[in-house]
Amino acid sequence: MKLNLILYPFLFAIYPLLFFYSRNAWLFPVQELLYAAAVILGASLITFCLLVLVLRRAHAAAVLTSAAFLAFFSSEAVFSQFLGLIKLRYVAVIYAALIMAALYLILRYVRDKKRFTFILNLVALFLIILPLFDIARNLYQMNLAKPEAQENIQKEELNNQTSLVGPAPDIYYIILDGYAHTDTLKKHFGFDNTPFYEYLSSKGFYIVPESRTNYGITNLSLASSLNMRYLTEKDGASESTFSSYRLINIISNNAVYDFLKERGYTSVFVGSGFYGKENFGASVFFVPKKGSSFSRPYKTFLIAFLESAAHRILDKPATLMFGQVQYVFDQVKEIADSDIPRPIFVFAHVFAPHLTYDPYDLDPDCNKITQKKDDQRRYLDRLLCANKEAKEVIDEILAKSTTPPIIILQSDHGPDFTDESSQEGKISVTGAQVKLRNFTALYLPDGGQEVIPPDLTPVNLFRLIFNHYFGSDYELLEDKSYYVCEFKCLNAKGEAKVFFDFTEEAKF
């Protein structure tokens, strides 16, 4: 490597992008990384060239370009540390002053510019090698994770007989991410959700009183419920780890889709954009509306990266994230009156009331507001917004359906919760209960709710529905609840694992 070959500004510029992708490769195809990398490299090259023209010094232009991009992409990490403490514009001024002071010292006192360039080139190369290695490993694992349909999904024999007389009902499976159980809301949030429950009851919904989830994390919960079974090591789920790559494939190639497809259903997916392209194997899928940045090829990952790295500086991407919750609800309402071939199975994932880290949030009427510091208040506001939108969706579905539909409102898990017993890296029993006790409300016409037990878990949900409405003969599985640590944590016995059986603790 030549001592005077300037590479480091471009390597430093792309490092945060590569690091972010290495942690989220399972969400986005590699084409989106290539597009984003081209954008960032192009921007850094243009910045460098402009500074060379202005300063007439390539070394100074290289240092300033590096500093500008590293400062920009680290801004959220810095600003978030001071959220609610002092005004962010003061933080920005101090941050900029420190950077400029460091730059002045470098430019003023570094004499051997060639050696300095060589050292920074080596440092930058070392930095990007690490995430590139992780990306290569992740892509290899993702390729191995492509499911062998019969072996991985382990489908049971499907009974082709149907007990239906007349048109098959449309089925709406709406996931309200992180929606708490009523017991959690009363006991830990001091919140009475009775008006929403009364609305649901008045429409004919059955609210499962002792509902709990099988897995306390989204990917595992959805992979299990949509395949009507517990996950195994072949699915990438073991005591020591779980593979998000395999889980996404299992969700996309799920048993519920296959069962209903054999009976003439059109599968429809409506997503929040959280899982990248996320069509999840559906015949028809919806992404945010045409004309938004999310609708243009290869921009989803770039926007997700910008939101994570600098959304307090770039207002537009965060605004798009804010709009995704509203989008999913609106799209489901439109589907109810659409010309999509019937019958339909609609799987909709609403990223609410689960908290986000955008600078904007939702008030109880779903209006955009500046994010509050109090997470509990934020959560309740998002829950009230979800209530409001869910009622509108239900009214629209019931009004537009010619055949009484099946409507499932369910949370994949409860909210994250910490109390005085919570410790870093250890499981709190209270926290596990809050996470594993979820919300389930079912609109099941023609006596369907009579077959639903009071302690239903998602793994048996579609088994019961298919048995009742389609004459299938699925056996019910034991209702288990597993607390899941994204990284290993310790239980009361000091055991370090990812999965912990908290079935007894989660019961009411």
From TrEMBL:
Which InterPro entries has this protein been placed in? Answer: Alkaline_phosphatase_core_sf, Sulfatase_N
The UniProt keyword set, sorted, is: Membrane, Transmembrane, Transmembrane helix
Transmembrane ranges, per UniProt, are: 5-21, 33-55, 62-82, 88-107, 119-140
The signal sequence is none
Pinpoint the Sulfatase N-terminal domain residues: 187-419
Coiled-coil segments: none
Q: Which Gene3D superfamilies is this protein grouped with?
A: Alkaline Phosphatase, subunit A
- This protein is called Sulfatase N-terminal domain-containing protein
Organism whose genome encodes this protein: Candidatus Wildermuthbacteria bacterium RIFCSPHIGHO2_02_FULL_47_17
